[in-house]
Design a protein that fits this description.
The chain is mostly helical and 296 residues long. 74% of the residues lie in helices and 0% in strands.
């Protein structure tokens, strides 16, 4: 008997690929006038309030117990506080091309972690698919590879590297523990709340002299977009997908994020798309297909 296609899973993967592809642009606009830690704190704070409204409506707001709280706390620190926070800081100084190249290392790190914790078998198909996708990302931005050696980008590269490792560790950790609780909304409420509080403290520590009057409406709207779509919608879809496919299959959506980011640069910022982009897109899609292909 043929298994019915999981349209919810397909929808979730598409949302994660597209929405998180737009967050590079959203963060870049937000950091124009708002300090990074304030962006992340406001982003997670708004997300927490939205999810709180959902769990209150469903009458599911409750204490999750210390064991589950520990799981949500660790996931929040790894993926929201460190990964999301440090990426926002990095985008304050790094060019988008370099950011995309380095962020594409995430699937490689997730694959290594998944193999280490027996979530994924080491296979030629898996390694080849990941490297093919990464090659596509590098092909798009190969003219910007010299930026890695630019001393002006040292701090940004350091922050982004920490963010990539933290995100990858959080993805593997979430995959290991995701079956211990079925209430995605309640778990996300705790994760967003924890991150918002920690990042608010960091915001006042590192940006105590900030003036809200200096924040542009453009940056504020970008932050709200990041909260509603980049956090609430995408994380719901991310956790739904993570329960049904491997951590590696979810993480390789980072390659699709790159395609979306470049397309938006062409659409909104009048950036030129060269033939190289077409070749790179083919390589990335081929890598994604190889990772996901299974014989009937």
């Amino acid at each position: 008997m043929n298994q019915k296609p999981d349209y919810k899973l397909f929808f979730s993967l598409v949302i994660v690929a597209i929405v998180w592809g737009t967050t590079y642009l959203g963060i870049r606009v937000a950091v124009e006038t708002i300090p990074p830690w304030f962006i992340t704190s406001i982003r997670q704070g708004i997300a927490a309030l939205i999810v709180l409204a959902i769990v209150l409506y469903k009458k599911e707001l409750t204490w999750i117990g210390w064991e589950n709280f520990k799981i949500q706390f660790i996931a929040s620190v790894l993926m929201l506080v460190i990964a999301n926070g440090f990426t926002t800081i990095a985008e304050h100084t790094l060019p988008s091309g370099l950011t995309s190249i380095l962020s594409a290392l995430s699937p490689v790190a997730v694959f290594a972690g998944s193999v280490m914790f027996s979530l994924q078998k080491l296979s030629f198909k898996g390694v080849f698919g990941i490297l093919l996708g990464f090659l596509g990302v590098v092909f798009i931005f190969r003219d910007g590879l010299d930026d890695i050696l630019d001393p002006n980008y040292k701090t940004g590269i350091l922050f982004l590297s920490i963010a990539i490792v933290s995100w990858s560790a959080g993805t593997v950790y979430s995959k290991i523990n995701i079956y211990k609780s079925n209430n995605i909304a309640l778990n996300l409420f705790y994760q967003f709340s924890i991150a918002a509080l920690i990042q608010l403290v960091l915001a006042f520590v590192f940006s105590s002299d900030t003036k809200i009057s200096d924040w542009s409406s453009r940056s504020i709207f970008a932050t709200i977009y990041l909260a509603i779509f980049g956090s609430v919608l995408a994380f719901f879809c991310y956790h739904y997908a993570l329960k049904r496919v491997t951590a590696v299959q979810v993480s390789i959506l980072n390659y699709i994020n790159t395609i979306i980011a470049v397309f938006l640069g062409w659409l909104l910022l009048n950036e030129v798309i060269k033939f190289d982009f077409i070749i790179a897109t083919v390589l990335i899609i081929a890598g994604v297909f190889i990772i996901n292909y299974k014989k009937k």
